Structure formats: structure tokens, C-alpha cells
Amino acid sequence: VPLGISSAHVTRGSVSKVLLYQVTVSDNDNPSNTPVIKETSGTSMDITNLEPCSTYTVGVSSVNVFLEPGEPINVNHTTSSEYFNKGINSNILPLKLVLSCIVKFNFIIV
Q1: Average pLDDT of the chain to the nearest whole number
Q2: pTM of the predicted structure, to 2 decimals
Q3: CB proximity list for 67: less than 8 A, separation 6 or greater
């Protein structure tokens, strides 16, 4: 779920007997960037510092008793970009331009 142009909130239903989840964030627009990997004991997490107007793959895996992550559930997330442009003269109302990169989610079953 988008929280703004540079952050998102990820939620996963709990898995029985799982105490730890691994969240992996990969930058689809810059595949040479190393994925960010975080672990959490909760079933939700805020992801911050995302680039506006960019696409990311967010994967959530449950971690087993050997601390090895299972197969992830992946979601593609495209951040939005919003710009505000004020008119030159005070008689012109401020214009709000929303670029064509809108927030969207695509679920991938792996």
C-alpha cells in the first residue's frame, strides 16, 4: 500500500509457527543495485527511501527454524510522482500535475 511517493506499507497474513519473515526489495529500474533485505517478526513493514516514479519487486518469505527463507510472495510496486506548479500571477490557481506513473500492484505467484 503506498504511503507517499517514496514509501510503501507491506502486509502479509501470518503463517502458523513462523516467528520471522524476510522482506526483499529489488529495484527493477536499476537491476545492478543490490536488493535490500530486512527481517521482521511482525506481519507488516514500512518500506522507505524509494525513488519516485520507479518500479520495485517486494518479496516476503517466511523464515524456517534453520533461518533459511522459503519461497517469496512477490509484489511489483510502482511509485508515483506528484509535482505542484504555482501560476506566475496570483489570479491563476495552483496547478497540480500528476505524472503518468501511477501506483499499481501486480501479484506474481512463484
Answers
A1: 74
A2: 0.69
A3: 20
